[in-house]
Amino acid sequence: MIGTCIRRGLAAGAVAGLLAGLVGLVIGEPPIEQAVAIEEAAAGSEAVASSGPEVTRTQQRLGLPVGTILVGLGVGAVFGVAAAWSVGRLAGDAWQRSLKLGGVLVGALVLLPALKYPANPPAVGDPETVGTRTALYLGLGALGLVFAALGWLAARHLAGVGVRPAVRQSTVGAGLLAAVGIVLWVLPSIPAEGEVPAELLWTFRLRAMAVQATLYGVTAVGFGLLASREEQRRSR
Question: What is the pTM of this model?
Fold first, then answer.
């Protein structure tokens, strides 16, 4: 069963990666181009010409869909394992379980990290803090997944001792909000320094989130469609 789920995840992840790459090219490239122009203007045309980019913008554009497809394959494989684990543990049919898992991924890996460390375009931020910022971003996403797992365990325990659904869901929800709030308060802030206009900065951030949400969301939807079709075929 797990092998079948992984194959479905790979197929869904590849499609999701391609779509995420296309979304990035369509809506993500314009603010990046504007930010690059601002960065080059600030550095001076002579400095830019003398150094020369090691990777051209055309190469970066062509590489974006390839990169997102590879990431999508990895996400899809992990999603397949999670989907196999969810059978008998999460309520609902294959479609509903897939959407629940997709919602967890979007919430933990897209929305939560963006609250503290939103994506920055070129010309924003100190290059020396990129490594620290990336580590904090990934760590916050991992914490989001841990919180989701703990929330599920808590809800399952409360259900086992007979706590009513409304009380159970309210308690778990309040606990998750408190945990997220504490983590966001404790983690260090990294200011976004640069000459990029605020409108351009937030346009880039929102569109970067859209690309990520496309990757995880389409993976969940694609997997759910494949799994539900097989589920319906077996029920006939």
Answer: 0.88
The Cα–Cα gap between 217 and 214 comes to 5
Report the distance separating Cα 204 and Cα 211, nearest Å. 11
Q: What is the CA radius of gyration of the chain?
A: 21
Indicate the burial class of 179 (C-beta count within 10 angstroms; 0-12, 13-18, 19 or more): middle
What's the rounded Cα separation, in Å, for the pair 108 and 144? 4
Q: Which residues lie across from 194 on neighbouring strands?
A: 124
Round to whole Å and give the CA distance between 14 and 82. 17
* Tens digits of residue pLDDT in 59-109: 777 888 999 999 999 999 999 999 999 998 888 899 999 999 999 999 999
191 is written with which tokens? Answer: 């200011």
Strand partners, 124: 194
How sure is the predictor about 40, in pLDDT bands with cuts at 50, 70 and 90? confident
- How far is the CA of 187 from the CAs of 144, 155, 183, 209, 224, in angstroms? 14, 27, 6, 21, 35
**Phi, psi (deg, nearest 5) at residue 38:** -65, -40
CB neighbour list of residue 6: distance below 8 Å, 6 or more residues apart:
77, 80, 81, 84
| 15 CB neighbour count, 10 Å cutoff | 17
Burial of 153: CB neighbours in 10 Å, binned 0-12, 13-18, 19+:
exposed
